[in-house]
Amino acid sequence: MKNESPQEPSDYQDFDLKYWFFKVLKHWYYFIIVGALFLSAANLYLRYTPRNYKVQASILINDDSNSNELSANFFTGIGRGRSGSGANVITEIAVLTSFDIVRKTLDSLNFRVAFYKEGKVKTREIYNEVPIKIELDPNHFQTSQRIYFDFEGLNKFKVIVGDIEQREGNTYECQFGVPCENQKFSFTTFINDSSKITQYEEPLYARFQDLDRLTVGYVNRVQAVARQQINSFLPSQIIDLSMGGRLIEKDAIFLNALCQIFINFKLEEKNIKANNTIRFIDSQLNSIVDSLTWVELVLENYRASEGIIDLSSKGTLVLTKLTELENQKSVIELNQKYYDYLADYLEKTNNNTEQVVAPSSAGISDPVLGALIIELNQLLSQKTLSEVTLAEGSFALQGINDQIDNIKKRLVENVKNIMAGSQLSLDQLDNRLRELRLEINELPRNERELLTIQRKFNVNNELYTFLLKQKAESEITRAATAPNIRILNKARDFQAILLGPRRMRIYLMAVLITGILVFGIILTKFFLNDKISDLEQLKNQSVIPILTDIPHLKGTGGKGVTVADSPRGRLAEAFRNLRINLDFVVPAVGDRARVIGITSATSGEGKTFCAINLAHILALAGKKTLLIGLDLRKPKIQQELNLNENKGLSSFLIDAAHFNDVVQKSDAENLDVIASGPIPPNPTELIENGRLEKLLTEASQKYDYIIVDGPPIGLVTDYIAAANLIQTTLFVVRMNYSKFQSYKVLQDHVNKSILKNSHLIVNDVTNSAGGKYGYGYGYYAETEGSKSTWARLFRRKRG
């Protein structure tokens, strides 16, 4: 019977979870070995890798729209900073994390000195546990080499520069509290904790870091983000700051200091206009105080020398008019000084971002001038902050500069017009003063001189009083200015978040990598292995039926072993299973014998072993069996069964012997053998000469089964030449020996209908390969001698 519609085996079947589970489970020792290695590596990594933590702080930026209300009343709209609607949070973040702010913070904390403790395996930076404090000389060169400390009590210590093992020429003696100076360094050391000084044993060294480079490092570490508003994509007025590092306490101190430095900076920025106003008033007061003091002294001396106290009624009237005009002239002259200051400011370049003093500080209430000054100050503030966030020469920054230039041009034109009008007012006042002086000349000499002195005193005194009032109001405004930024949450070391390495995550990664690596090894081994090593895999891929699997025989290699040696053993049970299966697949043809051929792709796969044992098991079942050695090129049957090699199949095929002459009796009952005989030069031609068919016809009348041990079909064509005479072909593949290519040889012949009724025998199957005889047939026939050493020892121990 032929296999109907044979199909190519599928290399990819539906994924069988159970199959892969047990396949992976067979390599459990891989998980133990690889897992132990990676878990050990993870443990070493966790032990010697410093932990990184993140400390956090947050600041709140309040709306500054009403913070300068008092200042606005005095300055009549000098301006309220960058924007009347509140602070630009994104811009504030840029200022907060800018190089200058961070550098100023580091300089205030003395972070240029970093201390390190050397261990046997790793070196780590320390902060709180440092027993000393170092103050560097800012005007002296500081080496970048390591500075080791060797304490010799509480009074003095030694400094080793560079390698601690090479002390000669690099060791210097120093004292606590006294500057230690040479060409390489200059610093003063103070004791933080005297108890730690006497107990310090591990090597301690310091490094002096360049402040600018240190600043760059901290700028890169500090992260500042605007917290998002709830149910909105817009940022809130809260800025969250964070930084990662190994020293929690040091990073927390830095963040808190950074917030405070930023608050002070913003407060100073808000007070710039008030400070400029006070400086302007002070410059005017300095000149007036000297004049007022001198006039007051002259007035007292004149009254004393002339014996005159007060003026006459006419003199008093003239003095009143004169003082009023002089006061008006003084105010105009003061305004003229402000205009001169403003004109000088406007002549400066665009790089000047200093805030302009408000005109109200000089008593000027011109609404047009005031509005222009407010607009200019707002643009200057916007430019200052934009220079932090925008690149030089950017389009946005150039737009701000263009607006500033436009405002300055309008201011220059406005100031020219005001100064022209002011000069006209001065000329009119001078004319009125000349007329009034004519009336003064009609007064007596001593009263006239007293009136002149009194007039100068009154003018200077009123101007002095006015300026003092303006200064007091400016100082009140400055004192009332409060920062619009406050610290919402300080950075605290006990609230630090562990960034890594996370112990559980590292161990899970080790386990995961172990699984991936082992699975990779197993899959690589599986896909790169071209040998048949898994019975279940072969069953899934094969469309040719597998009749049975032959178990692996430990310690024998299968050589010289037959079912007759152990009729109730595992091997015998396997071939009994094959015999029973053959009853279903080999059709009976009347009284004629059933002809079964056994072959393989190459030698060494166990075809002769299977042929001999199948013949024996049939004979044990009472079936008259003939075993024929058809492998005329490399015969093995006569060697395995110790038969006469002088006569055999080749002798019959060349008509040199009759059928009865080549049949030899075996040691087993019901089993005869025809050996291969002498090796001929043309085996294929002999098989095709028709004598083989004659032999099989004659043998079919005398035997129930004829087992033909054929040559390998993957190497020679001898078996193909006899295939039409054989009812059923049993193709032998050997576990962990035969390649999948061997199966394809059989598949090709089946597809071409060359071989009839083909089936597979899987030889040398171990338990790990999927064999069923580890716990199945034959377990009851095991003898004491066949049991393992461990089983015998265990039984002996129990007995």
Form type: elongated
Number of strands: 22
Strand content: 15-25%
Uncertain stretches of 5 or more adjacent residues: 1-13, 65-87, 773-787, 789-799
Mean pLDDT: 78
Q: Note the gap between the termini.
A: 57 Å
* Structural class assignment: alpha/beta
Count of helical stretches: 25
Helix content percent band = 40-55%
How is this structure best summarized?
The protein contains 25 helices and 22 strands.
Secondary structure topology:
Elements: H1 17-25, H2 28-48, E1 52-61, H3 69-75, H4 89-96, H5 99-109, E2 113-118, E3 123-126, E4 132-136, E5 147-151, E6 156-161, E7 171-175, E8 179-181, E9 186-191, H6 194-199, E10 204-208, H7 211-221, E11 223-228, E12 235-245, H8 248-270, H9 272-306, H10 313-346, H11 367-389, H12 395-440, H13 445-480, E13 485-489, E14 497-500, H14 503-528, H15 535-541, E15 546-551, H16 570-585, E16 594-600, H17 607-620, E17 625-629, H18 637-640, H19 649-653, H20 659-662, E18 663-665, E19 671-674, H21 683-687, H22 691-700, E20 705-709, H23 718-722, E21 728-734, H24 740-751, E22 758-765, H25 789-798
Parallel strand pairs: 15-22, 16-20, 16-21, 17-19, 17-20, 21-22
Antiparallel strand pairs: 1-12, 1-13, 1-14, 2-3, 2-10, 4-9, 5-6, 5-10, 6-7, 8-9, 11-12, 18-19
Helix pairs in contact: 2-14, 4-11, 5-7, 5-8, 9-13, 10-12, 10-13, 11-12, 16-17
Report on the architecture of this protein:
The protein has 799 residues and is α/β, with parallel strands linked by helices. 49% of the residues lie in helices and 16% in strands. It contains 25 helices and 22 strands. It has an 8-stranded mixed beta sheet, with helices on both faces. A hairpin with a 4-residue loop joins strand 2 and strand 3. Helix 10 crosses helix 13. The longest helix has 46 residues. The chain is elongated and about 180 Å long. The N terminus and C terminus are likely disordered.
